[in-house]
Amino acid sequence: MLAEYLPTLLFLIVATGIGIALILIGNFLGPKRPSPEKLSPYECGFNAFEDARMQFDVRYYLIAILFIVFDLEIAFVYPWALVFRELGVFGLIEMGVFLALLFIGFIYVWKKGALEWE
Amino acid sequence: MVPLSWYLALSAVLFTLGAVGVFLKRNIISMLLCLELMLNAANLAFIAFSSFFGQVEGQLFVFLVMTVAAAEAGVGLAIVIAVFRNRETLDVDESNLLKL
Amino acid sequence: MTFEQILFILFAGIVVGGAASVLLQRNPLYSAFSLITTFVGLACLYVTLKAQFLGVVQIVVYAGAIMMLFVFVIMLLNIRDEDTAVDPNRFLVYLTIPLGAILLGALLYVVTKVNLAQPTGDEGGTVERIGTNLLTKYLLPFEATSVLILMAVVGALHLAKREKE
């Protein structure tokens, strides 16, 4: 059974190996002549306005919360989608209740204005 | 074949690392990260038992634990944001208004 | 040593290395990225335990969604390294080592009592089996989950949203 996943394992090993190898080769072989201009953050040709580590807006967090909701929703829909033919109408109602409850959360977030960006 | 005890030993090591981290760290976010580590140690033990006993219940439980972890992270981090807004710090020792 | 055991040691090394790095990093952002490494190693272990679906869910939900939330908050609050330095005067730091050793010893003692080398059951958890069980036998936890997520969304929104002045 596990033999099916051998290609995936090989893929992981090769991908990791190539990634590490490229970083190491670049580090060892590349010439390094740093100057303050080269080390400064690049911002389309003109001088940088502010620190690159600026604070993010809290609205990104609210969007991320919504993303988590739909992410979990999809994770639960996946096993349902494989068996819903056997479950029939009952399974449909179950998933309908599940989705409806999550949809209430979506409507709440929407009505609270978390998605507005003014 | 890998024996069950190997998986359980790994789970024990992971849980201990998480518990030590909760004690050592002073930053709320780092403590929450260590909490996730402990949850994952429990998940690993669940899946190991589920696989060795050939029952699917353990995996269902892990699925629900992941959902609870997502809810916990969402509300916990919202609390962190609210605390940071009011007290301008993330140090747990500074958040002591309710202490006797 | 069989191929499976070598694989286990490889993935366990990734998991423990990532977990140790979570503890050792001072910047919470690096801690979070180390934790993602741990999660990927755990997902690989889940696949070797015939729990492929949960391996994928581990990546999608944990490494994808939950850790993204953590990283967003770390960047949102813009934490500098000095905020997170360990205070050397805190007595808990000295208590942690023996307490951790005791905990690990107790857990490993219990683990040695388990001597199950071979799987006793037949099949692992295919996605169909998870779906059938989730939607028939464990219907109530499944529906309760959606209520939990709903509550989490409402609570998180209420706590995090800035009040209008």
Give an overview in words.
The complex is a heterotrimer of chains A (118), B (100) and C (165). Chain A is mainly alpha-helical and 118 residues long. Chain A has a single domain, classed as Up-down Bundle (Methane Monooxygenase Hydroxylase, Chain G, domain 1). Chain A has 4 helices and no strands. Chain A has helices at residues 6-29, 36-39, 58-87, 89-111. The relative contact order of chain A is 0.07. The mean pLDDT of chain A is 84. With 100 residues, chain B is an all-alpha fold. Chain C has 165 residues and is mostly helical. In chain C, helix 1 (3-24) runs antiparallel to helix 2 (28-48) and helix 2 packs antiparallel against helix 3 (52-77). Chain C is globular. Chains B and C meet through helix 1, helix 2 and helix 3 of B and helix 1, helix 2, helix 3, helix 4 and helix 5 of C.
Number of helices of chain A: 4
Residues in β-strands, percent of chain C: under 5%
Order of helices and strands of chain A: HHHH
End-to-end distance of chain A: 54 Å
Our measurement of the CA-to-CA distance between the termini of chain C, rounded to an integer number of angstroms, reads 67 Å
Give the helix/strand class of chain A.
mainly alpha
Query: In terms of per-residue confidence, which ranges of chain C show pLDDT below 50 for 5 or more consecutive residues?
Result: none
Look at the structure and give the CATH class of the largest domain in chain C. Answer: Mainly Alpha
Rg of chain C, rounded, reads: 20 Å
CATH class of chain A: Mainly Alpha
Q: Which whole number gives the mean pLDDT of chain C?
A: 84
What's the number of extended β-strand segments of chain A?
0
CATH architecture of the largest domain in chain C: Up-down Bundle
Largest interface: B-C, 71 and 86 residues
- What is the domain tally of chain A? 1
Give the helix proportion of chain C (percent range): over 70%
Q: Point out poorly predicted stretches of chain A.
A: none
Spatial shape of chain A? flat
User: Could you give the count of β-strands of chain C?
Assistant: 0
Brief write-up:
The complex is a heterotrimer of chains A (118), B (100) and C (165). Chain A is an all-alpha fold and 118 residues long. Chain A is 69% helix and 0% strand.
